[in-house]
Amino acid sequence: MEIKFWGVRGSLPAPGASTVRYGGNTSCVSIELDGDKILVFDAGTGIREMGKALGERNADLYILLSHNHWDHIQGYPFFLPLFKDSWNIHAFEIRQGKVMLCSLTEQMDTPNFPSSACLPRQYECRIDDNPMIYLKSKGFNISRIATNHPGGGFAYRVEHNGRSVVYMTDNELEPPSKKTTGFDEFTRFCKNADILIHDSQYLENDMPLKHGWGHSLVSQACKLASAAEVKHLVLFHHDPDRTDGELDVIQDNARAWFKKNGDNIQCTVAFEGLTINI
Ligand SMILES: [Zn+2]
Ligand SMILES: [Zn+2]
Q1: What gap in Å lies between CA 174 and CA 222, rounded to an integer?
Q2: Which of 144, 164, 250, 264 pairs with 92 at a CA distance of 20 to 30 A?
Q3: Residue 138 C-alpha to ligand 2 middle, in angstroms?
Q4: Dihedral (Cα; 199, 92, 90, 71), 10-degree rounding
Q5: What are the tens digits of pLDDT across the range 118-155?
Q6: Distance CA 131, CA 269 (A)
Q7: CB within 5 A of ion ligand 2: which residues?
């Protein structure tokens, strides 16, 4: 599996001099399997660069959302493969609250977007109660678990050739309100994963103001990685105000914490362009 990070920021894009190294685009991660199938997790603004990099290939793209918030769908209208015939695109809506239409395409309706001027070709957009069943029929081994986030959402675990990746963003491990999923359940879901990509938007000094906003502390993501004994934690969904220098410190501190805790866990702060092969 080749895992690539195209957008690592949370909440909204954060371009500028202070974010140039880690990047300002919002959530988008691709996982390429066997060279002919690409899973795309979230369609934040990072998906635009991904679309340009993909070029023309006769392959299948499967787009799965963690949830429908803007920072996870907003790059989609600018995703070049939508306008090319060589790609077979399968997009999956997740039901969230009252939302019944596909959030990916709903944003392209007039008056939100000049879709009449540049209508993309038809493609498959499924609104399934459980897209996992459809993906299983296509040969994928993917499971999901509900996250603790306002409005709900899902995290995913992909297994392939004995390797595993968990994509778990917009998840508050210790929310002030009733949990949809508890820490022990998340630990079981992530157990022994090769890669855990986890929301780490906040630090202790962001609290108590942002407690309940649906995101985890860096320290909580580290504790989950430790409890689940994953091999590599990738800290993800950075706060838009977090500077490159601050993210360097976060990485140093997280690595020091694992060392002190006696964990043999690799830790990386996600940046645009990060590529991991497992
Ligand atoms: Zn988000
Ligand atoms: Zn969200």
Answers
A1: 13
A2: 164
A3: 28
A4: -40
A5: 555 555 555 555 788 889 988 899 999 999 999 899 99
A6: 30
A7: 69, 170
Ligand 1 geometric centre to CA of 50 (Å): 18
Instruction: Please list all protein residues whose beta carbon sits less than 5 angstroms from ligand 1, which is an ion.
Output: 10, 71, 170
147: which residues sit within 8 A by CB, 6+ positions away?
66, 67, 153, 154, 155, 168, 169, 170, 171, 172, 180, 181
pTM of the predicted structure, to 2 decimals: 0.94
Cα of 167 to ligand 2 centre, how many Å?
14
How many domains, in total, are found in the chain?
1
Q: What is the pLDDT of residues 53-73, one digit of tens each?
A: 998 777 889 999 999 899 999
Read off the CATH number of the domain in which 221 is found.
Answer: 3.60.15.10
Residue-wise pLDDT for 145-197, tens only, equals 999 999 899 999 999 999 999 999 999 999 999 999 999 999 999 999 999 99
Q: What is the pLDDT of residues 192-222, one digit of tens each?
A: 999 999 999 999 999 999 999 999 999 999 9
The ligand with the least distance to the CA atom of 199 is 1
Domain containing 184 equals: 2-277
Q: Which two tokens stand for residue 90?
A: 């399968």
